[in-house]
Amino acid sequence: MPDLLPLARFGDRVATGLLDVTSDPAALDSAGFWAVCADFEGGLTCARFADVRHERVPAPVPSRWRGPATRDWTSSLDRAAYMAGVRRVREYIAAGEVYQANLCRVLSAPVSPDADVDALTALLARGNPAPYAGTIRLPAHGVEIATASPELFLRRYGRVVESGPIKGTGRTEADLLEKDYAENVMIVDLVRNDLGRVCGTGTVTVPDLCAVEIHPGLVHLVSIVRGELRAGAGWPELLAAAFPPGSVTGAPKSSALRIIDALETVPRGPYCGGIGWVDADRGRGELAVGIRTFWIDRPEGVLRFGTGAGITWGSDPEGEWRETELKASRLLAVASGTYEDSGAGV
């Protein structure tokens, strides 16, 4: 492994000079600038950096990133297994155990020992720009992440908190189905309930419902849920109430998590977790949902990437498989160095 210094990059903000690392969320209400990675399974890494500066993401340098060949990617659930999982979720819905559940799969491919996620971030910034793009590089702590997430998990400024759940994906707005709108509203209700556990009575609102956002190669339905933290509530209480993100679990969340555990064959890790930054000195922070996210598993020598879809009673197994392919195809092409030949519609 190369001698990679700890680093965090979010948009045009770069943090270096690692001071300390903790798993205690209370640190986010202390002081300093923190990079945050919360695994879907609950593991939390908070890294405080001494130096924060603003600079553009550098132009990609081909020699700095050697991605896997497209043929080398394997999936934790193949097409047949994934479609069987969709049918199983529909059985849970018919039995009244859940209304909606996200079913995800993790893709893996061998990666070069000298791979650097910050170099991958530069490629993603060109090939798949995203509002919550970022890097967290902490090799000694097992965290090496490059994300091109389009989805806001939690934004905090002072006592005000926001979440921006995404539900509903298509190549164009015309592809969005009635099922997508119903699913979005269902998850908005879940997020309202999550934030209501830590926000003052009557402060939780929905300023935007089912807005269509255009992203590279696809469109999403996005809503905004906003509230004001009650007295005494900080990051520990907020994360305890809202994690894991409702848009990548399902409703009710507790039932969806049991179904996910039964049907998915590998841990999600940082995929579908929370990735971002907290400026404790200014009382601000922004965590993205860890989707459209790559991470390096050094012990296994592989690069990983997750993709999934929300399953409802109206889901078609083949259609849900295609949605997972749509979400992954462009980013895998970028990571594998074939994006230039993949066409604008990938």
What does it look like?
- It is a single chain.
- This protein has 346 residues and is of the alpha+beta class.
- The chain has a single domain, classed as 4-Layer Sandwich (Anthranilate synthase), CATH 3.60.120.
- The chain is 25% helix and 36% strand.
- The chain has 6 helices and 18 strands.
- The protein has helices spanning 79-94, 117-127, 178-196, 235-242, 253-263, 317-336; strands at residues 7-10, 13-22, 33-38, 44-54, 74-75, 100-110, 132-138, 143-149, 152-157, 160-164, 166-170, 205-215, 218-228, 250-251, 274-279, 284-289, 293-297, 302-311.
- It has an 18-stranded antiparallel beta sheet that branches.
- α1 crosses α6 and α2 packs across α6 (317-336).
- The longest helix is centred in the C-terminal third of the chain and has 20 residues, at 317-336.
- It is globular, with a radius of gyration of 19 Å.
- It starts with 6 loop residues before the first strand and ends in a 10-residue tail after the last helix.
- The model is unreliable at 341-346 (pLDDT under 50).
Give the tags:
346 residues, Anthranilate synthase, 6 helices, 25% helix, globular
In short:
The chain has helices spanning 79-94, 117-127, 178-196, 235-242, 253-263, 317-336; strands at residues 7-10, 13-22, 33-38, 44-54, 74-75, 100-110, 132-138, 143-149, 152-157, 160-164, 166-170, 205-215, 218-228, 250-251, 274-279, 284-289, 293-297, 302-311. The chain is of the alpha+beta class.
